[in-house]
Amino acid sequence: MSQAPATCSLCARELPAPECGELHHLVPRSKKGRKTVVVCVDCGDQIHQLFTTKELERSYNSLEALRADDRVQRWIDWVRRRPSFGTCMKRKKRRT
What we know:
Helices cover 39% and strands 10% of the residues. By secondary structure, the protein is of the alpha+beta class.
């Protein structure tokens, strides 16, 4: 059986490759957060550009709270129109 393709929990785009996804801690690990969701690398980078660790811990500790922010909504609208993934395709391959 083939596995269903993974999608980003924030922008809902299908991940073209496993390395384009990452686990995002809804409450940062430094604040003892344990719950994670899979987001594309592009969305993960954007989340950390928009919010501080304290903001993520206090106000944006759920997908619903993230999606409710106007800046995140504008990001989602913009990134969904992109023909392909940007950041994740430029990442260096990990050494094995």
